[in-house]
Amino acid sequence: MTAMRTGLYPGTFDPITLGHLDIIKRACRLVDRLVIGVAINRDKGPLFTLEERVAMVEAECAKLSQATGIEIVVHPFENLLIDCAKDVGAGIIIRGLRAVADFEYEFQMVGMNRKLDAEIVTVFLMAEADRQAIASKLVKEIARLGGDVSHFVPAPVAEAVTAKYKR
User: Fold this and answer.
1) Which of 23, 109, 124, 146 has the fewest CB atoms within 10 Å of its CB?
2) Domain for residue 145, yes or no?
3) How many structural domains is the chain composed of?
4) Could you tell me if residue 10 is inside a domain?
5) Is 86 annotated as catalytic?
6) Which one of the listed residues 20, 25, 131, 140 is annotated catalytic?
């Protein structure tokens, strides 16, 4: 029997975007079980609480899990990424790349993570071309300025983002 391949896709998901979901869908083709690590990361000052972000990710991933047959688990974490991977039994860390600037940062991160645990492999995935430019930070900026974010996030997430800025 082949060992179960568990992957970890970490991020703040503030909010989860169609780009994130594209990466998650692609990751499901590589693993038997996918853990979505929702980083607490107080330094970023998220728009949504941890509980709200976890709920949004769970709602969107439930549909993908059902469609793909892959177990998708949402796991909040505040420790080192490599320790989170060990905690959830992941042998693969999945990272999404949008541009060259992402690669430079991710390249440094992979080097550091390899020093911490050489057994955990990092895999880079790119979203579909029409999803590559989507960033949570830009989604929030568009919503804050009254723009339509429905092209960048799932409908329930668009409603939640818009509601945050109407307060």
Assistant:
1) 146
2) no
3) 1
4) yes
5) no
6) 20
Q: List strands edge to edge, sheet with 33-39.
A: 71-77, 33-39, 6-11, 92-97, 121-126
Q: Please check whether residue 161 is in contact with residue 138, taking contact to mean a CB–CB distance below 8 angstroms.
A: no
Does residue 134 sit within a domain? no
Judge whether 165 lies within some domain: no
Full residue range of the structural domain in which residue 88 is found: 6-129
Out of 44, 63, 137, 151, the active site residue is 44
CB atoms within 10 A of CB 2: 5
**Catalytic member of 26, 33, 98, 164:** 98
Q: Is 75 one of the annotated active-site residues of the chain? A: no
| Residue 139, pLDDT above cutoff 90 | yes
| Helix boundaries (H) for the chain | 18-27, 50-68, 81-88, 100-116, 136-144, 155-166
- Identify the CATH number of the domain in which residue 116 sits: 3.40.50.620
Region 115-137 average pLDDT: 91
Amino acid at 98: R
- Given 25, 95, 136, 140, which residue is catalytic? 136
Split at pLDDT 50, 70, 90, the class of 129 is: confident
Q: Report CA 78 to chain centroid distance, whole Å.
A: 14
